[in-house]
């Protein structure tokens, strides 16, 4: 299991050289999309295997389409189970979305916030958990339209977590982006989340299209307001494993080192404040 006070970096092929050369202590674990690595062999597969021997690996799926209408991809699910067993992987998460409709959409599409969707998604999450033999985490996604919304996003997420008895991978940047785009208070959203369900955090950069429109890109540095929201999440729900995502527009590795170190600094500040509070 990952330590609560641990930090991770997304394993991307464009960062592979830097990750392999990283100094001990830069990060504690790596996260990858299993679809990108399951059937990879040869030299690239050997590089993954070497990294898996050095670092704990977590999986963050892209293609199970938990909210989709087509049957779950049992072949992919079996491949994921085998991959986890092969490399001793203990953590799997997916997106609270759908990503396929008569073929892959190559995007994470928002779900209807209604009771029927809650039941549908919870059933599919349970199928995945039964197949993998463990709880999984679902991630709150960024979205730019909310079709057929019969309840607020926070109520929908709470209901899915309870109905599926699963965990939440809390993407702090997505909370910030959605709060701006859909006109709610990010801190209020965080406060309403069930701390006992939070398995970890994601943090990433976004693009400022306008004052009232933010685009979740994972292609730029983390904004100051998002760093503050991460600190707020720690204060409300405690420190959990926290991962820095960068999917393209890769900077020099030294810049990622700085962001990783900033996560560790925020964690250390929270720990110090907690210990001071206990001592007082």
Could you please describe the fold and organization of this structure?
The protein has one domain: Divalent-metal-dependent TIM barrel enzymes (TIM Barrel, Alpha-Beta Barrel). By secondary structure, it is of the alpha/beta class. Helix 1 (16-21) links the parallel strand 1 (7-10) and strand 2. The model has no long low-confidence stretch (mean pLDDT 92). It has helices at 16-21, 42-54, 74-87, 115-132, 153-164, 172-182, 186-192, 224-237, 253-279; strands at residues 7-10, 29-32, 57-60, 92-95, 98-100, 104-109, 137-139, 167-171, 198-203, 206-210, 213-216, 242-244. The protein is built from 9 helices and 12 strands. It has an 8-stranded parallel β-barrel. The protein is globular and about 50 Å long.
CATH architecture term: Alpha-Beta Barrel
Written as H for each helix and E for each strand, in order along the chain, the element string is: EHEHEHEEEHEHEHHEEEHEH
Could you report the average pLDDT, rounded to the nearest whole number? Answer: 92
Relative strand content? 15-25%
| Share of residues in helices | 40-55%
CATH fold field value: TIM Barrel
Low-confidence stretches: none
Strand order of the largest sheet: 1-2-3-4-7-8-9-12
Q: What tags apply to this protein structure?
A:
18% strand; TIM Barrel; 44% helix; 280 residues; eight-stranded parallel β-barrel; two-stranded antiparallel sheet; alpha/beta; globular
How are the SSEs ordered, and which strands pair?
Elements: E1 7-10, H1 16-21, E2 29-32, H2 42-54, E3 57-60, H3 74-87, E4 92-95, E5 98-100, E6 104-109, H4 115-132, E7 137-139, H5 153-164, E8 167-171, H6 172-182, H7 186-192, E9 198-203, E10 206-210, E11 213-216, H8 224-237, E12 242-244, H9 253-279
Parallel strand pairs: 1-2, 1-12, 2-3, 3-4, 4-7, 7-8, 8-9, 9-12
Antiparallel strand pairs: 5-6, 10-11
